[in-house]
Design brief:
- The chain is of the alpha+beta class.
- It has a 5-stranded antiparallel sheet with strand order 1-2-9-4-7. A 4-stranded antiparallel sheet has the order 3-8-5-6, with no helix packed on it.
- It is built from 24 helices and 22 strands.
- It folds into 4 domains: 2-120, Jelly Rolls (Sandwich), CATH 2.60.120; 149-263, CBS-domain; 277-468, 2-Layer Sandwich (Beta Polymerase, domain 2); 504-621, Four Helix Bundle (Hemerythrin (Met), subunit A).
- The longest helix is centred in the middle third of the chain and has 29 residues, at 313-341.
């Protein structure tokens, strides 16, 4: 290699590339400053399979470089692309042959320098997260859906015909039309009915309030957005992926240049919800706990169906969780009926049964235990022995019912039968206030389970009021959040100092990684703590991550890297448990990395790196003494 002096053209060449399109000129200057610009001749090999990692990362400035993958695939490196980033992330030896096909210029960046730049330059940190997310998507298994509701084309679900307006339509005219038709959007077309843009109510508000647009300004000049477009034969699962990847509320279905329909995330969700399920219908119709227990043994069928008909593992798990919840609600109803038949009568006061932990987040797999509680409405009678006795007897029966249908009793006794989790609303609020104002390590561990609560059955207003109290207390007394972050840091991603996968050894299981404890739980905990600190009441991890982007707590690129890692780990674990259930083995969350393909192990390492980066961000944010 021949060293050459750097010139200003290097910064200019990088600025317009896909990797650096959102990186500031100052950050690009800093990157170039810490790098060496080198020229390599055509035919030269940058590195090859089996070669030791050089603690270097490369960026192509100009020229032509080809990466020969172990699978036989050849990838062309584009100007601005990072080379050897996966090795930087996991410190593994090289597995690809990387060859310059013509004389090429590259930036050579020491790994230590890139780590420093990530810490000091958020836009470089985000650029790498964007690349990590893209690489995780590339390495993920093919999740194409060929059957089920989401396999049908968007034309089956889209709203058609679209309501349009012309480019010269004024803001006042557009707003009037939207109000008359009760619409949230309009499609802007020209005189040939060719698509020109998308107009939304939010876009009109932004133009008027933030940009000072006038009522007689044309929508094309001040409020028109560039829409995301899809073809009529696009499958619903592909449309759903575009919605989520680009945070696009609406997609325009076009035939050539002509808009023929529009589809939103709500349209896709409605399709899934309306899909009939024989199993859930039978859950609702069961007449005894014995019959219900027989049906819950078939949850494996629901898991397989959810995985096969949902593109994203998080959606599959959400659908599987909803199936679990139908069974659990029927267990509640059978407990209520048992109370009546035994002569104890109906509930003496209003109440809300709470699910906590993975149940509250709607992230249940196939071997979920119980984490639950109950809120009893405040009343002069709530502390009377008669009321207390009724709810105690009911909760014991409910926990027993859930255990009998396949949800084992919680080892930590986080269940409604325990008086600690069977309280009036006033008592719940008092306990929340106490742990917020006098936080301890034990209280933080308690909060990391309980603060995923959601209504399973009963009056949701009680749950909502308790959530309002939790968020208000955390806003005024945020120190508990720091202690929750400290509690989370006790869990370690399964990635070592040299970025090797770390396994645990046992006599009966061999070497394994606990995918939940060492991966999924860390993401869920970090998302929970950051969401609570931002006043977000959502419980589901994906919902929390998306909300953290909306409030500016996470960048879109960083969120994407965490989300893709989360999807990869969920897919790995759901597939593992389905395989165990099919073969009649005991279900667990332990993955033997040696039984994975080389590609899957590499993807797992990258996912764990993303987990560690998220945990590190949480630690950094809550390291301050102000908490």
């Amino acid at each position: 290699m021949i060293n050459e002096s750097k010139t200003i053209t290097t910064e200019q060449q990088l600025a317009g590339t896909r990797s650096f399109r959102e990186v500031s000129a100052e950050s690009i200057d800093a990157l170039v400053e810490k790098s060496s610009l080198q020229t390599i001749p055509g035919g030269a090999t940058l590195f090859k399979p089996g070669e030791k990692y050089k603690n270097l990362v490369y960026v192509l400035v100009e020229g032509s470089i080809i990466m020969h993958r172990p699978t036989g695939r050849q990838d062309t490196v584009l100007a601005g692309d990072f080379i050897g980033l996966a090795n930087y992330l996991d410190h593994q030896d090289y597995t690809t042959k990387t060859v310059a096909t013509t004389e090429s210029q590259i930036l050579v960046i020491p790994a230590e320098a890139l780590q420093q730049l990530e810490q000091s330059n958020p836009d470089i940190f985000n650029a790498l997260n964007r690349i990590i997310a893209e690489k995780l998507r590339e390495r993920s298994p093919d999740r194409t859906i060929s059957s089920g509701a989401l396999a049908q084309p968007v034309t089956r679900v889209m709203k058609s015909p679209v309501v349009t307006c012309g480019p010269d339509t004024t803001i006042h005219q557009a707003l009037t039309l939207m109000q008359q038709r009760k619409l949230g959007s309009l499609v802007v077309t020209d005189e040939k009915n060719h698509l020109k843009g998308l107009l939304t109510f939010a876009g009109l508000a932004e133009a008027s309030i933030e940009k000072g647009a006038k009522a007689d300004d044309s929508v094309m000049d001040v409020a028109c957005e560039i829409p995301r477009v899809i073809d009529p034969d696009t499958a619903l699962w592909e449309a759903e992926e575009i919605h989520k990847r680009y945070t696009a509320k609406y997609l325009i279905v076009v035939d050539g240049m002509t808009p023929i329909g529009m589809i939103s995330e709500t349209d896709i969700l409605r399709t899934l919800i309306s899909r009939p399920s024989t199993l859930t219908n039978r859950f609702r119709e069961t007449d005894s706990i014995q019959e219900l227990a027989g049906l819950t043994a078939r949850l494996i069928d629901a898991a397989i169906d959810a995985q096969e008909t949902n593109h994203r593992p998080s959606d599959a798990v959400r659908l599987l969780s909803e199936t679990h919840l139908v069974a659990q609600r029927r267990a509640v109803e059978l407990a209520l009926r048992w109370m009546e038949t035994k002569g104890y009568g109906g509930p003496p006061l209003d109440y809300a049964i709470l699910n906590m932990g993975s149940c509250g987040r709607k992230e249940m797999l196939l071997n979920s235990d119980q984490d639950n509680g109950i809120i009893i409405a405040d009343s002069p009678q709530s502390d009377t022995p008669e009321v207390q006795e009724w709810f105690e007897r009911f909760c014991k029966r409910l926990n027993k019912n859930l255990d009998r249908i396949g949800y084992p009793l919680c080892p930590g006794d986080i269940m409604a039968r325990n008086p600690m989790y069977r309280k009036t609303l006033k008592q719940w609020k008092k306990q929340v206030s106490h742990i917020n104002r006098r936080p301890t390590a034990k209280a933080a561990r308690w909060a990391n389970v309980v603060f995923d609560f959601d209504t399973l059955y009963g009056n949701d207003l009680l749950t909502t009021e308790l959530w309002h109290h939790v968020l208000a207390e955390l806003k005024e007394y945020p120190r508990l959040l720091k202690m929750m972050a400290d509690d989370d840091s006790e869990g370690k991603p399964a990635i070592g100092f040299f970025n090797q996968l770390i396994t645990t050894t046992s006599n009966d299981q061999g070497e394994w990684i606990d995918i939940k404890r060492n991966g999924l739980r860390i993401i869920a905990n970090a998302a929970r703590i950051m969401a609570l600190g931002s006043g977000i009441a959502a419980q589901n991890t994906s919902s929390r991550l998306n909300a953290l982007v909306r409030v500016g707590r996470l960048s879109q690129d960083f969120k994407d890297s965490v989300q893709e890692a989360y999807e990869e780990l969920l897919d790995l674990l759901l597939t593992h448990q389905i395989s165990q259930a099919k073969s009649g083995r005991e279900l667990n969350k332990l993955i033997d990395p040696d039984k994975l393909s080389r590609q899957s192990r590499s993807t797992l390492r990258m996912a764990m790196r993303a987990v560690k980066r998220f945990q590190d961000k949480l630690k950094d944010e809550y390291a301050s003494d102000i908490f």
